[in-house]
Amino acid sequence: MDVELGGIADGHHSGHGREDDEKGHGWWRDLVLAYKTLGVVFGGLVTSPLYVYPSMSLDPEMTTKDDYLAIYSIMFWTLTLIGVVKYVCIALSADDHGEGGTFALYSLLCRHADVGILPLKDGDMTGAISQSHHYLGTEKHSNVKTFLERSLIARRLLLFVAISGICMLIGDGILTPAISALVEALSAAILIGLFLLQKHGTSRVSFLFSPIMAAWTLTTPIIGVYAVIHYEPTIFKALSPYYIVHFLLVNGKSAWRLLGGTVLCITGAEAMFADIGHFNKRSIQIAFLFTIYPSLVFTYAGQTAYLINNPQDHYDGFYKFVPSAVYWPMFIISTLAAVVASQSLISATFSVIKQSVSLDYFPRVKVVHTSSNKGEVYSPETNYILMVLCVGIILVFGDGKDIGNAFGVVVIMVMLITTILLTLVMLIVWSAPPLLVGLYFIFFFALEGVYASAVFTKIPEGGWLPFSISLILVFIMFGWYTGRQKKIQYEMKNKITIDNLGTLLSEPDIQRVCGICFFYSNIQDGLTPVLGHYINNTHSLHKTTIFTTLRYSLVAKVAQNERIAIRRLGPKGIYSCVIQYGYADTGFEGAELVERVISKLMRDIQNGLVGLSSLSAEEEAAELDKAKQAGVVHVRGRTRFYIGKETSWYDKIMLGFYEFLHGNCRPALPALGVPIHQRMEVGMLYEA
Fold this sequence. Notes:
Layout: H1 17-23, H2 26-37, H3 43-46, H4 65-90, H5 102-112, H6 143-150, H7 152-179, H8 184-197, H9 202-231, H10 242-251, H11 253-262, H12 269-274, H13 281-309, H14 317-321, H15 327-340, H16 342-358, E1 368-369, E2 377-378, H17 380-397, H18 401-428, H19 434-455, H20 464-493, H21 498-505, E3 511-520, H22 529-538, E4 540-553, E5 564-568, E6 574-582, H23 590-606, H24 617-630, E7 632-642, H25 649-664, H26 668-671, E8 679-687
Parallel strand pairs: 3-4, 3-7, 4-6, 7-8
Antiparallel strand pairs: 1-2, 5-6
Subcellular location: Membrane
GO molecular function, one term: potassium ion transmembrane transporter activity
Region (Disordered): 1-23
C-alpha cells in the first residue's frame, strides 16, 4: 500500500504514547490545552446561536410564549443529552490510541473482532509484528460479534456505514464555513485568508483564534443573562420536559418540522470527537463542561427571552437581542467567531482524509504533520478544494437559509452513524451489559431518528447538497478501494515465489549489480509480479535487494520497536522488510527510511535474527556496508489495468474510474521523500 506521508516520526508515537505523556503534565497543561481548544474544536457549537433561530420557519403571528419555551427546552435537552451525555461522557472515551472519529470507532471494532474486509497481507511476517495492533482474537464473544464475523454482507455494510460517516463529516467541513457567512463578499475574503493560514498548523491557528472564541463565550452568556432579566425572568421553567411534550401534541406536524432547525444547536459535536488527536480528551471535556455548555445554555435563554416579546425578529434573533450599546463590538466579535467556527471542521477533515489515505480508502494526497508530538496534520490539496467549495457555496446560496437546511442533514446523519458504531463498540470492545447498551441505542437512535425524519423534509430545499457531496466522495472511495483490491488479487494470483526467484537469478545472463535496492511490494507472502518483469527486461538485480512492504493497520499508532520487521529470503543478499504504520503515525522519509531499515537489518544480522546464511555475521554485515556505500535505489511498479473486450461492464466502469484517479493522484516514491535520482518506476499491465 503506498500513501503520502509527511513529517518525521518520533518516539512519542508508540502505543498510547500521547495520552500517557499528557497525564504527566497535570491539570495546568490540560487547562492551557482547554483554552486552545476554543479556537479549533468548538467553533460550530459556540456560533450556533447565529443561525439556529433563522433556520426555523416560525410564523410570528402564530407562535406563542409556550412555543418559544418548548423550543428552548428542546435545545437545552439536546445539548445536554447529545452534547454532554453522548459525546463528552461516552464518545470521547471511545478513542483509538488518542485518535477520534468514525475511523477510530471502526478501528476499535476491527481490532476486537474479525470484521474488517481489508486484504490480508500478513504472510509469514505476522509473527514479527505484535498482534495487539490487529485483530486481538479475544475470548469474549457476543451474538453481535459472531454475526458480524460470519456475515460478509454485514461486514461490507459496516464498512459502508464507516465510509458514509467520513464522507458526511467532510461535507460538514465544507458547509460549516459556508453557513457562518454574514456578508457574502467579506465572508468569502476572510475564509480564503483562513484557508491560507492552515499550512502553519493547528497549534498556531488556535493561538490566533482562541482569544476570539474566549471573548465570544464570555460575552454572549452575559448578554443572555441580561436579556433573561430584562425580557423573561421565568425562562428557565422551560427546562421542564413538559413544554416539549405539550408543544409536540398541540402543534403536531408543524412542531415536528421545526426540529430540522433546532438540531443545529448541536452542530460541531462530531468535530469535537474527531479532533481528539489535536489535543486530548480531558482538555476537551474541561472546555466543554465549564465554558461551552454553560455559555450556550445562557445565550439561548437570552435569545428566547427576547423573541418571546419580539417574535417578528426571529430571522435576525441574535443581533436584535444584543443591546444597542454593545452592538458594534458584538458584531465584530461575532463576525470573527463565525469565521473561526469553520476551523474545527477543517481540522477534522484533515484528520479523516489522512486516516482514509493511510488505510488506502482514498487516493494519495499530500499529508504534512505540523507538530512533532500531536496528531496535527495538513493536506494542501484538501485545503484548497475545501476553500473553493466553501466560497462557491457562499456565493451560490447567498443568504444561508438553504445552507442551513443542507447543514441539518449532514449533522444528524453523522450523529446517527456514530450512535450505531458506538453501540457496537460497547458490545464488542467494552463488553458492556447488553441491557444498558440496548437502552443507550434505543434512546439515542430514536432521538436522532426523529431529528433525521424532520431534517429529510429539507432535502428539496438545499438538503440535496450534502448528499451530492457525500455521494461523490463515496464513489471516489469505493472506486479507489475496488481498484486496489483488484490489484492485490492479481498480484496474489501471479506472485513470484522464493523458488521462482532462485530460478530467475540462476539464469546465466542475469547479473547481480552493486548497491542496495529497495523494491516496493504490496504483498508479503510472495513477491510482486513486477519483479519478474523487471528482471526479464533489465537482466539484473542488485546484490542487496530489500523487498519492502508498507503496511497500514486499523490502529492509530504502532510502537517504535515494532515498526520494522526483517527476514532473509532464500538467495544471497535478498531480504524481506515490513514497515508498519498506524493511521495516525508519521512516516519515515527518504534518507531516514533507508537509515532505519539498514540499521535494523545490521542489528538483526549481528544478533542472528534474520535467518540462516552461508556467510558469517561479520561477513554479511561487511557486505551490507559495502552495498550501502555503492548507492541506494528505490524501485516500484507503476502498474495499470489492461481492459480488454472480455472485461465485464462493471469492471470497465470501476477500473476505468480507478485508473483516472490513480493517474491524477500523487505517485508513491515522492510521497516517501525519495530523492528523484534514486527513483525508478517499472511499468507493467495487469489483466483485469
